[in-house]
Amino acid sequence: MNDAPLNVPTPSGVLVLFDPETLEHRRRAPREWTENRAELEREVAAAHVAALPLGEGQKAALVSIEQGAPPADPGIVTARVRVKHRGLFLGDRSELPSQAWGKRRWNAWDWLFAVFLVSIIPFGLWIVRFSADILWILFGTVALFIVLLIPLSLPFIRSGWGFARRSTMPPKDHPDRMLAFEPGEYLVALQRRGTDGVREHVSLWFGRSVSG
Questions:
Q1: Fewer C-beta neighbours within 10 Å, C or N terminus of the chain?
Q2: What does pTM read for this prediction?
């Protein structure tokens, strides 16, 4: 179990805890299921995932794992979550299992490399002394391509797809956010403790569920 607070990007604004093996059946579901409130509530009710909505505009959480029992606070959210194998992954709602897991996706490095490859064409023609008119046309085409590429790329970068790892297997990409637990059912208490203007501070408590 990690003692130091964990920094978790939360582009969706919802912090989740789940065992990847418990949600294995969702690996065949479209990625859009993670944004469907009814589907998420169904998995929460089945103790397959615990979810905590963060404050509006909070795109990251600093999560502390607390010892002992949680305080008597009406603002604390409790949920049951089941561990099937090796533990719980702490992440964002967008990192829940879906068909997107394991598929290589383009990140910002790929886009920059594509721009580099396209720019080689006019540079090579300039080296071999092509006519100025042809060079201006090619340079203009490249410039237009880059200008159009920027707004198309921004939504991916802002949603966390920017320089993210390409494997798209969150537990493998972020092993520090895998919390070791023995198989069973756990009661988790989640408390929002304010914000530093950048991240929502969240405390977590764990205990064995009576039914587990």
A1: N
A2: 0.68
